[in-house]
Every structure is written in C-alpha cells, then in structure tokens.
Design a protein that fits this description.
Helix content: 25-40%
Distance between the termini: 16 Å
Strand order of the largest sheet: 2-3-1-4-6-5
Structural class: alpha+beta
Order of helices and strands: EHEEHEHEEHH
Number of helices: 5
Length: 141
C-alpha cells in the first residue's frame, strides 16, 4: 500500500522548519514523520501527515512550495537484522531505493519510509513475501 508524503522546499535559513511545523499545527494537521535534507542554500523537508492534500494547501498559503509523492511504510522487526531482513526481500530484484528514513507508529512499531524507483514492483514483491505495508491510518494507531 502506498501512502502520501509531502515534500517541502525551503530556503536554508533559521526558522523555516519551525514555520512549516507551526503552519501544520495551526491547521490541525498531525505530523507523523519528518526528515530534513540540506543541500547548501536550500533544504528539503519530507513529511508524513494525516492529511497530505490539506497540508499542501496550508503550506502554499504560507508561501511554501510543497508536493505529494507516494512512498511505502514498512514495519521493521525490533531485533538485530530487522531492517536487513526487509531489504533482503527487495535486494535481489534490483529495485532502486530513492531514499529511506525511519519513523515510528503510535503503537510503538518501528517503521521505514521507503521511496522506490518502481513502487508498484516493490509493493508486489513485498506482498508476495508476506511483508506488511502500512496505511497512514495504521501509522496513526
């Protein structure tokens, strides 16, 4: 199952992350996961939220450029090698990962957010190998 991820492009200066988080909070949008990447003068904030389209609208009203892309949220066993087990399922098939970052569900489950070059192929393999993927609602607990 795919879930929507909001990507926000911001200038790399103090207060930008705060502005994004405040705009979402003031709009009643629940922030489930966040990662921030720096590329010199600009930054890229990736978010999993309970209402992706609303978040894009709210951020646009705040003067911020945001887009929605599909990612996959996979639970990871809380044990040595848990992530390796998940990645082994996809490794032999030459599916490219565009990026990945950790998150956690309200139920305390460890989760990896993954963006693939071929999401449909990755989902088919995960399903075939009985690896669960989560919806945004399941991440909320």
């Amino acid at each position: 199952m795919k879930i929507p991820q909001v990507s926000v492009f911001v200038s790399n200066r103090p207060g930008r992350l705060q502005a994004v988080c405040r705009a979402l909070a003031d709009a009643g949008i629940n922030l489930l996961s966040l990662t921030l990447a720096d590329s010199g003068e600009f930054g890229l904030i990736r978010l999993i939220v309970n209402e992706a389209e609303k978040a894009v609208e709210v951020l646009a009203k705040s003067g911020l450029s945001a887009t929605v892309t599909d990612v996959v949220a996979c639970p990871v066993a809380d044990k040595v090698g848990g992530l390796a087990d998940l990645l082994d399922v996809l490794g032999d098939l030459q599916i490219d990962y565009m990026y990945a970052y950790p998150s956690e569900c309200k139920a305390g489950t460890n989760v990896m957010i993954l963006r693939f070059s071929d999401t449909e192929k990755a989902l088919a393999v995960l399903k075939e190998k009985n690896f669960k993927t989560l919806s945004t609602e399941e991440m909320l607990g």
